[in-house]
Amino acid sequence: MQNVKGLFRMLFLLLTVVWVSCKDNSKCRYKPAAIFAPDLPYVVQYNYEVEGQQSLESLILENQVLLEIYQDVCQSTRQEYRFTVTGDRSGSADSTWMKEATRQLVFLSTMSPQQAPLKAWADVIEQNRTNMHLGVPLEIDQGISVQIDRILSPEKSTLVLVFSQQ
């Protein structure tokens, strides 16, 4: 009898947790906005998809770089930029990836006045490059961090930049 009561209590607790979790799925006041547009210079192909508080923006640039930007906005904000090129870059030093992050952001900042603020992120990375390590977020201000990483394979290489605000 004691085991049955314990089982019912555990089941009741589990159902309560599930009910509260489902009910706490509050609506977000914010929606992600596109950062780029299909008619910008150097953009060969463009796609933008948004679902709720998340979006995926994809660009193929004239230099054959695939840029994918994942955004997640609500109480916190996270933007992940993925620059993918063909070829194996596994022999590149960590410092090369840091420099490439700066270079890509400077390039993107020249596309139009709307992208100009990306230059400020390039400056932040350049100023903090010696303190950065691949795959490790660096807090640059209270609750604001930047992370640089890479994804390697024999066929393609991806530079990953993550900007987040808590």
Explain the overall architecture:
Helices cover 30% and strands 35% of the residues. It is an alpha+beta fold. It has one domain (43-165). The protein has a seven-stranded antiparallel sheet, covered by helices on one side. It is globular, with a radius of gyration of 21 Å. Residues 1-24 have low confidence and may be disordered.
Quick structural summary:
With 166 residues, the protein is α+β, with helices and mostly antiparallel strands. The protein has three helices and seven strands, in the order αββββααβββ.
Features:
35% strand, 30% helix
H/E element string? HEEEEHHEEE
Which value, in Å, is the CA radius of gyration?
21 Å
Would you tell me the overall average pLDDT? 85
SS-based class: alpha+beta
Helix content: 25-40%
Give the percentage of residues in beta strands: 25-35%
Enumerate how many helices there are, as a single number: 3
Widest sheet: strand ordering: 1-2-3-4-7-6-5
Helices and strands, with pairings:
Blueprint: H1 2-23, E1 43-51, E2 54-61, E3 66-73, E4 77-86, H2 94-109, H3 118-128, E5 138-141, E6 144-152, E7 156-165
Antiparallel strand pairs: 1-2, 2-3, 3-4, 4-7, 5-6, 6-7
Helix pairs in contact: 2-3
